[in-house]
């Protein structure tokens, strides 16, 4: 009998708190108000986590020239993070997954964005996340480091990374964010 199939992980209070703390610690260090957890947004993130775990390395490409593809935004911003291992994960490293975004350099040129700017986006108030973990559904024996995968999907509302705005000076909400 082979390994258990990949699945969406149920996030308990401890996991939610770890993810939220990792977001809010960096926001606090940059003078940005904390985010709150939103169960409705988290439920939306579950859909993309479940979809992504069907793809090699949990990276849904949907014909996008092999580049990881983001999910149906439905009015949310979205960040994706992955971790891989040659052996099954004993636990999910929630905070270190968020740290992948938080360790990116913060762009200072207006109109430049990345994952951390969504985390820091001043007008974003809520976050909800989902995790899928398990064996790679399409393993490549020549790449043993990718036999086990984790994807973290975080959706944000109101979304950030709007053209013409900067994470720390964003003050105007678009019509659909009000």
TrEMBL record:
UniProt cross-references to Pfam families, sorted A to Z: CAP
Cross-referenced Gene3D superfamilies: CAP
Start and end residues of each SCP domain: 14-164
The protein's name: PR-1-like protein
Organism (species): Rhizoclosmatium globosum
């Amino acid at each position: 009998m082979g390994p258990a199939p990949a699945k969406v992980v149920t996030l308990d209070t401890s996991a939610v708190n770890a993810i939220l703390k990792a977001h809010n610690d960096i926001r606090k260090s940059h003078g940005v108000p904390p985010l709150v957890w939103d169960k409705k947004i988290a439920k939306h993130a579950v859909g993309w986590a479940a979809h992504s775990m069907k793809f090699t390395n949990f990276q849904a490409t949907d014909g996008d020239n092999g580049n990881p593809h983001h999910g149906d935004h439905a009015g949310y911003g979205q960040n994706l993070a992955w971790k891989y291992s040659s052996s099954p994960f004993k636990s999910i490293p929630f905070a270190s997954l968020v740290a992948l975004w938080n360790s990116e350099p913060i762009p200072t040129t207006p109109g430049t964005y990345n994952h951390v700017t969504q985390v820091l986006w001043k007008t974003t108030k809520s976050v909800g996340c989902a995790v899928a973990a398990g064996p790679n559904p399409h393993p490549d024996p020549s790449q043993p480091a990718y036999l086990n995968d984790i994807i973290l999907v975080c959706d944000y509302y109101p979304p950030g990374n709007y053209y013409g705005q900067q994470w720390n000076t964003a003050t105007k909400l678009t019509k659909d964010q009000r």
